[in-house]
Amino acid sequence: MGQLNTFQRIRAMEAEKQSLFALYLCERMLPNYEFFHQLTGFGELKPLRGALNALWDRHANPKHSKINAERWQEKVDEVTPSEYGHDMLGVYPAMDACTAISTLLQGVLDKDSKNFVDVAKVSQASVAKFIELNIADEVPAEQLREAVNQHELYQYEVEMQQAMLNYLEAQPTVTKALVNQLKQMVADEGISNIGLEVNQSSD
């Protein structure tokens, strides 16, 4: 094929860009948790929002901004929902958002690119599962995987990750301006990875 796939391209980037890419993906998943929280009253958005804000600050001000990744992980774990007791589709994207943020924090702790790659995998898998659960009754089981892969929401997720990799690969270094630009890009996109509208007041 010649072309590197998404995950190979992440591995090939500098650690700072890998982490920033994973953070961008987590930011796109946060509204899924927020929506679930609003529907059920379960959990709290604040620990997730706080963790992401701390990570954005860390990238924007690497010399001056410290982050207690382990403590943030504990806070995220405390508000992570379980599928048990929540008989609704929205619990899975909410769980995935927590998993992605916790995985990103683990990557910061371990300085391990595997975790940043895993965030991209979680985001793609979250979209795929959401589509699958939505269309399972309409599509024969043997055609389900292909139907998911061809679904516009999944194709958009893959294309968005590739486009963001193109953008980051073209940047010489990670700067405060670049970090702020990525935050603005999430807001401008206006939707989560499963197509939910982003609450602009959540920051």
From TrEMBL:
Pfam families: DUF416 (PF04222). InterPro entries: DUF416, YP001051499.1-like_dom_sf. It comes from the Bacteria. This is Orphan protein.
